[in-house]
Amino acid sequence: MKPLIGITGNFGDKGCELAKAYYQCIVEAGGSPVVIPPYTNKSALTSLLDNLDGILLSGGADLNPLLVGEEPIPQLRWINAERDVPELMLIELAYERQIPMLGICRGIQMLAAALGGSVYQDLGVQYKDAPLIKHSQDLAREQASHMVYICKDSVFGNIFKNEGLQESDKGEIMLPVNSFHHQAISVAGDKLRVVARSSDGVIEAVESSEYKSIIGVQWHPECFLSGGNKSHMPIFNWLVNESDNYAEAKRIHSRILSIDSHCDTPMKFGSNEERLVSLPRMMDGHLDASIMVAYLPQGERTNEAHKAAAAKANHIITQIEEMVSAHGTEAGLAYTTDDLYRLKHEGKKAIMMGIENGYAIGHDLSLVEHFRKRGIVYMTLCHNGDNDICDSARKSNNEHGGISKFGADVIRELNRVGMMVDLSHASEKTFYDALDISQVPIVCSHSSCRSLCDHPRNLTDEQMKRLASKGGVMQITFYEGFLRQDGQASLLDAVEHINHAVNIMGIEHVGIGTDFDGDGGVPGLAHAGELINLTRALLRERYTERDLSLLWGENFLRVMREAQNFAKRNIL
């Protein structure tokens, strides 16, 4: 099936219109083009985007500066009020959904305006960095009039790396382009990276700085095909290929069950702080289910403190229940694997519950069954700091030398009631002790690989092998400090950790636990709405649909099913 590419139409005397070169290039690249007329009905736009796989933002009139907080200067030319607002809305909605976008001429300027950048109203008046070359040519549209210089270390540079183009003295790729503009990007903003300029320094191309499929060019590459010149077709090939990848990711997510095994969203209940996991973002990211945890920081280990911790855990569980109940037409609570599949069939998002830190039960073993009856599917034995159950990977005094006698009873009780044991945050000795004690497989709900990032919270290769040998699952997390020690971590690092875990443990023992709203989130995977990007990246790594089904949930669900079935057998 060819990817469906929406092309923004211009607004002329007879209504919506479009130069044929745009859709000819999409067809030539292997896509199916449709025209997007300018309209501002958000519901209609949202419905349209549900069906689009990519977007081409076409050229046209000047942007109305009032829409970006500027007064017009005398050199401003014709503006198209009918286009500006709809396109800004379209870009913002498509950006949240991770839809691939290509902006051409006006299109690159609209990308900047919508994503936090700014635009020169007129280069001749406002550009002061260097004497300008001619940016509005008199030559035919299919003829090049100047060079642009492309950064080789970029997605855009990679598009042209095998096209036999000359390089500048600085090692930049030199591409002949046409030019029909008097406006240009002045500031790209944080969400876009400048990847090409003309000799006078004017910005000629940008791409996403957040590992999204977004490119903008200041020239008109579609015009070259009209003249029989295919030298700029790699740009359209990129858009169609990225759109095809996005379409495939959507199709896979419609068929598999995707679960994020750990988020701390309840920490933000009652505050105005932005939540990284929400129902709209779960829909944008094509995420079916999220396990929201009742997080308890390690505190004093007195009877009074333990009672307070249990009460707090119960309060958070009630908050989660109330939140889900308030959105009953869109979401539901899940307690079993059957619940998850039922909710997906009903078109609802599923919320499951966990407890992060066995501090919640204090010394009271009966609370394990209590919390299981309240719907808790796993309990993380500890957090940062030792508790009465075990030693932690951080802030530990090695009090127990691993699992305490009480901790061993806790693990056996977790097995008995069908609640999974979670070893994220546990010390190495705790980890190995728990694997020996538990009669069912164990999960690490949000951990990463120590060989790639040397942090005590991460698992060594030996731990990973032992976990896999016991049938357990390691859920890769997106906390920056667990993905990379130097520099900023990103989507690419998350993929590297997944690849490494799969190589060490096998595809049947790896999953995804983001730690969103608990400091998890990196560029490209900043919130739940961006999780479709991970599937897209893994498809590029040649993971199959079966592989993705295992990574996104089936491995984790296997462990949950085994834990719950063990409890059923014991009851019987």
Walk me through the structure.
- The chain has 19 helices and 22 strands.
- Helix content is 38%, strand content 18%.
- Helix 1 packs across helix 8, helix 3 crosses helix 4 and helix 8 packs across helix 18 (532-540).
- By secondary structure, the chain is α/β, with parallel strands linked by helices.
- It is elongated.
- The protein folds into two domains: 4-249, Class I glutamine amidotransferase (GATase) domain (Rossmann fold, 3-Layer(aba) Sandwich); 256-571, TIM Barrel.
- The strands form five sheets. Strands 4-1-5-6-13-12-11-8-9 form a nine-stranded mixed beta sheet, with helices on both faces. Strands 14, 15, 16, 17, 18 and 19 form a six-stranded parallel beta sheet that branches. Strands 20-21-22 form a three-stranded parallel beta sheet.
Properties at a glance:
572 residues, alpha/beta, Rossmann fold, TIM Barrel, 9-stranded mixed β-sheet, 6-stranded parallel β-sheet, 38% helix
Could you outline the blueprint of secondary structure elements for this entry?
Blueprint: E1 4-8, E2 10-12, E3 15-17, H1 20-29, E4 32-36, H2 42-51, E5 54-57, H3 81-96, E6 101-104, H4 106-114, E7 118-120, H5 123-126, E8 146-150, H6 155-159, E9 173-177, E10 184-187, E11 192-198, E12 203-208, E13 214-217, H7 222-226, H8 233-255, E14 259-263, H9 279-284, E15 289-295, H10 303-326, E16 331-333, H11 337-345, E17 349-356, H12 366-373, E18 376-380, H13 405-417, E19 420-422, H14 428-437, E20 443-447, H15 461-469, E21 473-476, H16 480-483, H17 491-505, E22 510-512, H18 532-540, H19 545-571
Parallel strand pairs: 1-4, 1-5, 5-6, 6-13, 14-15, 15-17, 16-17, 17-18, 18-19, 20-21, 21-22
Antiparallel strand pairs: 2-3, 7-10, 8-9, 8-11, 11-12, 12-13
